[in-house]
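Lab notebook page, bench 4
Experiment: in silico fold of construct C2
Operator: M.H.
Input chain length: 165 residues
Purpose: comparison with the prior construct
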Amino acid sequence: MAAVRPLTSSSSGAARRSSRPRTRCSRAAGTPPRESPAQTLDEFRDQLRHIGERLFALLDTDPGLGSVVLLEATSIDEEMTQRVLGLLDTFGALGAAFLQNGVSKGFLRADLDTASVGRALTSLTLPSLFAAIRGEAGPEERTRYVEAMIGLVCDGIGAPPARAG
């Protein structure tokens, strides 16, 4: 895979390509390139926790990345705006794939609209990322946010327990 040079912002605020090569964002944050699909709701909780922790680690590794992608890139031009929106669509589709696995394995509701909830998962991450960009997401806040998100997602879409009888 070819290295991708991320956008960074210059002192004037204009975005430019960094001269520093980078492979994929997930690898830059130390995430393995592929996780095994969750087999249980508890494993799904662990995956969500890992994803949340890695997103914060990515911002720690490259502090300007979040600001450029979430705040500055859409003001550059229409093409960059479409690229950012495409990135959000990709995250939503990835979330939908994680959710579809849970539906298939029976630990998420069978009637779950995985595409819509996948997009919603992406939007759940944004407030904490904005807080991190502002320097308002220390370790305790990050943990609280990740755990709250996991509780909201898993307790809201988890399959009801099987009834005895």
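Observations: The CA atoms of residues 104 and 160 lie 15 Å apart. The mean pLDDT is 77.
Next step: discuss at group meeting.
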